[in-house]
Amino acid sequence: MDEESASKSDGPEPDQGSSDTQAPKVVNGIEAAEPPNEKHLHNIEREEREIKRELNAFERTGLKWTRASFGITAITCLFIAFQWIAMREQLNEMKSSGQTSTDQANRVIENMNWLAKSMDWTLKQSRAAIEASEKQSMAALDASVNTSRNDQRAWIGVTGVAGPRLKDSTGREVYLIENRPVHFEATALNTGKSPAFSTHTLTSFHILPATTAFSPIYAVRDKKGTVVVQPQMELTLFDKGKEIPSREIIAALKDAGYILYFYGIINYADQFKRSHETKWCMFIVPTLDNFLPCTTYNDAN
Fold first, then answer.
1. Rounded to whole angstroms, how far apart are CA atoms 248 and 255?
2. Rounded distance between C-alpha atoms, residue 163 and residue 185, angstroms
3. For residue 188, what are the β-bridge partners?
4. What global pTM score does this model have?
5. N or C: which end of the chain has fewer CB within 10 A?
6. Res 129: pLDDT
7. Order of strands, edge to edge, in the sheet holding 156-161?
8. What is the pLDDT of residues 166-209, one digit of tens each?
9. Nearest to 245 by CA among 260, 255, 256, 257
10. 54 phi/psi in degrees, rounded to 5
11. How far apart are CA 218 and CA 267, in angstroms?
12. Architecture of the 156-300 domain
């Protein structure tokens, strides 16, 4: 009895001041929890409410952040959408502007090509006009120079034939009688305003049948002894033929069966060192007392 009491007294005494805790009961060697009292339940409910309040505050905060994130996301999406629309419109404008620029560039290129062709045509026309004007100017200048030179140059031409010196049986003056040598003289005159230099001449005559075409023969001229013919100076041209016409030739000349041609050539140079040539031709009339000019071989340059 005493030992049991001592053992009981040695164990810890229960806290009498705490009414919230109860000693667990042992059933068949196993501790069994006793059901909580009202105060304990109240504490548990209070703790649950506090946990709920904390959870509600966290949920509200998370919800706010979720809403804010959604709003930001929505605004960002709208901004991106607006940016995409603006970029698409800008791209379309750039495409349209690029096409317009391409069209404008093509038109500019076409206009430049047309302008270049027009300028090239105008340049060619101007060049042709300038060349034509230059040619005309040169031609006019040459013509003016030639006119001036021709006005100042020497001009030598045959002015006539000296009169007959023979007399026939009737006493009439004639150029030909039988059995007498032939002698003809022609007179040339420098009618120009300057001297003729290096002047040399050739004079001859031929008797041909009237049916034979006349073609003069200009023999090689000897340039030795050439003369200077001053302005208004006369030059005598003569030919002393070796032929002595017979009675038959004279009769044929009178009957126009034959024709006597008296002709020649004069070569000279003017003060501008240009060469000139004068050809002259005459034929005797059937009365044998005069000469007339031929229809050909009378020219000068």
1. 10
2. 8
3. 158, 235
4. 0.56
5. N
6. 85
7. 156-161, 183-190, 234-240
8. 998 899 999 999 888 888 999 999 999 999 999 999 999 989 99
9. 260
10. -60, -45
11. 12
12. Sandwich (2.60)
CB 201 within 8 A of CB 246: no
Q: How far apart are CA 244 and CA 181, in angstroms?
A: 5
Q: Which two tokens stand for residue 279?
A: 């050809």
Write down the pLDDT at residue 230: 94
The pLDDT value recorded for residue 17 is: 44
Strand partners, 211: none
Structure tokens given for 65: 């952040």
Distance CA 249, CA 242 (A): 15
The count of other CB atoms within 10 Å of the CB of residue 287 is 11
Which of 48-57, 235-244, 251-260 has the weakest average pLDDT?
48-57
d(CA 214, CA 260): 10
Q: Report the C-alpha gap between 231 and 152 in whole angstroms.
A: 10
Single out the residue of 202, 198, 204 nearest to residue 221, CA to CA.
Answer: 202
Cα gap 163→182, rounded to integer Å: 13
Tokens in use for 183? 């002698």
Q: Phi/psi of residue 25, each to 5°?
A: -95, 150
Three-state SS annotation for the chain: CHHHHHHHHHCCCCCCCCCCCCCCEEECCEEECCCCCHHHHHHHHHHHHHHHHHHHHHHHHHHHHHHHHHHHHHHHHHHHHHHHHHHHHHHHHHHHHHHHHHHHHHHHHHHHHHHHHHHHHHHHHHHHHHHHHHHHHHHHHHHHHHHHHHHHCCCEEEEEECCCCEECCCCCEECCCCCCCCEEEEEEEECCCCCEEEEEEEEEEEEEECCCCCCCCCCCCCCCCCEEECCCCEEEEEEECCCCCCHHHHHHHHCCCEEEEEEEEEEEECCCCCEEEEEEEEEECCCCCCEEECCCCCEEC
The answer to whether 188 touches 235, Cβ cutoff 8 Å, is: yes
